[in-house]
UniProtKB/TrEMBL annotation:
<keyword id="KW-1133">Transmembrane helix</keyword>
<feature type="transmembrane region" description="Helical">
    <location>
        <begin position="6"/>
        <end position="25"/>
    </location>
</feature>
<dbReference type="InterPro" id="IPR014867">
    <property type="entry name" value="Spore_coat_CotH_CotH2/3/7"/>
</dbReference>
<keyword id="KW-0418">Kinase</keyword>
<keyword id="KW-0812">Transmembrane</keyword>
<dbReference type="Pfam" id="PF08757">
    <property type="entry name" value="CotH"/>
</dbReference>
<dbReference type="GO" id="GO:0016301">
    <property type="term" value="F:kinase activity"/>
</dbReference>
<keyword id="KW-0472">Membrane</keyword>
<keyword id="KW-0808">Transferase</keyword>
<protein>
    <submittedName>
        <fullName>CotH kinase family protein</fullName>
    </submittedName>
</protein>
Length: 468
């Protein structure tokens, strides 16, 4: 009798503990799309069925479409063209090669592709290698930075091929569940309204305790942030700017790892550059993380399309890792400047680890061989490609050599032979020489050269209708 009584109590205790765990434990669901669409060992097949292609291009808003991913069809999804500068330039040059967003639950709540609510089909704008985005995200993931999944797909519209695209997991509901579990924090995509505005809020400068002082953040919330959530984020920003108790308010290790990859890839169309955007900000219980987004202008190519572009390839390859942009910008980027000031040794150690594991090792060469050989047959037949296949091959070899030379420069900086800050350049002008020509990765001239083939494709697409 006593044994049974004690046994019953034990069962009740175990049940209660299990109930508490079920209610409060942060579970991470298995997301089926990770091993389906984002199996990056082969090129996927995606067909988009659209009633009116002209409306899709002209409206720049969601239209209803069906999508077939490999052998699976999902009807009634939202489809639209995407991009800011890339979209306006594509239209200006009369191209039909657009990037697209697909929102599975746009017209019907709860519709997903095995848990994925949204994805991007990226046209590799100014990326003749087709590899910059995939390489950047793979490097982030190898450094332990939470970042989107990537794969390649051969894309058709109404069965008409439009080219090889990079498939990117959008940082929204599916991503949050995959990375943080069902019980996650708040997500923002900071962005400016106009470049001539102050925009220090998206640089994470402290501008007071009122949430209205941060329109670039809170007007771009991806989750339903309540007043308490906003208060928590503003307090984190305040402490960041005070450079106090950073580990309580910032995921320091994750953020340093993010900046290592960002600085290596010379992506100045980002938090680090003049615009200060193209990143996501995640906040949970008053602690923030920065997440990477939009990598197509990385590896120095952004500098060649600025109003006053930097034309010196050697100068860009050797850009110092402690001051990876100019002072007038960095003084409004406290997430970088304050963390690196307080954790400089950790930052430099992480750079050493990054180079050793990814660039100085066999991994980089193996990665390039695998990815370039996998996509080559599709690049050869891409009807909207910006460049010829020979120019694509040149871009691939340029990207590889850029990584090698950038690694040599950073290694020289770490060992004290080359300037590690811009101020040091005045006293120590030694630089690693490079034969790399960064515009070979992609520039505006390629858009002009792609006009004729894009016109042929445009005529075909505008005459199509959905087929079973």
């Amino acid at each position: 009798m006593y044994t049974k009584k004690y046994f019953d109590k034990i069962v009740l205790i175990v049940f209660a503990i299990g109930l508490v765990i079920a209610l409060f434990w942060k579970t991470t669901p298995v997301m089926g799309y990770e091993k389906l669409l984002f199996d990056d060992s082969y090129v996927h097949q995606i067909n988009l069925q659209v009633d009116d292609v002209a409306a899709l291009w002209e409206k720049e808003e969601y239209v209803m479409a069906d999508i077939k991913i490999d052998e699976e069809t999902i009807a009634g999804v939202g489809l639209r063209i995407k991009g800011n500068n890339s979209l306006s330039l594509s239209k200006e040059y009369g191209l039909s090669r657009y990037s697209y967003k697909i929102e599975f639950d746009h017209y019907e709540d709860g519709v997903t592709y095995h848990g994925l609510d949204k994805l991007t089909l990226d046209a590799s704008f100014q990326d003749n290698s087709y590899l910059k985005t995939k390489l950047a995200y793979d490097l982030y993931q190898r450094m332990g930075v939470l970042s989107p999944l990537c794969s390649f797909a051969w894309v058709t519209i109404n069965q008409e091929p439009i080219g090889l695209y990079v498939v990117i997991e959008e940082i929204e509901d599916g991503f949050l569940k995959r990375q943080y579990g069902n019980s996650h924090g708040q997500l923002y995509k900071p962005d400016y309204k106009r470049l001539e505005y102050d925009n220090r809020d998206i640089g994470l400068c402290y501008l007071g305790e009122m949430s209205t002082s941060y329109p670039g953040i809170f007007d771009h919330a991806k989750t339903n942030a309540d007043p308490e959530d906003k208060k928590n984020l503003i307090e984190s920003i305040r402490q960041l700017n005070l450079n106090k108790d950073l580990e309580q308010y910032v995921d320091v290790d994750h953020t340093l790892r993010y900046f290592v990859v960002l600085v290596f890839t010379m992506n100045w169309d980002s938090y680090m550059g003049p615009t200060g955007h193209n990143y996501y900000l995640y906040e949970e219980q008053g602690k923030i993380q920065i997440l990477p987004w939009d990598q197509n202008l990385g590896f120095g190519t952004y500098c060649f399309e600025m109003t006053d572009p930097i034309q010196d390839n050697t100068y860009l390859i050797n850009f110092p890792i402690l001051t990876p942009w100019y002072e007038n910008v960095l003084e409004n980027r406290p997430l970088f400047t304050n963390l690196v000031e307080s954790y400089q040794d950790e930052y430099l150690d992480l750079f050493d680890t990054f180079l050793t594991q990814n660039i100085d090792s066999q991994w980089l060469k193996t990665w390039f061989l695998k990815e370039s050989s996998m996509i080559a047959p599709y690049v050869k037949k891409d009807p909207s490609a910006y460049v010829s296949f020979e120019e694509h091959e040149l871009a691939v070899s340029t990207l590889y050599q850029l990584c090698v030379d950038r690694s040599k420069s950073i290694r020289s900086q770490l060992e004290g032979f080359s300037a590690i800050t811009l101020n040091d350049l005045e006293e120590n002008p030694k630089q690693i020489e490079t034969s790399v020509n960064i515009p070979d990765l992609g520039n505006l001239q390629d858009l002009e050269n792609a006009y004729d083939k894009n016109q042929i494709l445009k005529e075909k697409l505008l005459s199509t209708s959905p087929k079973d």
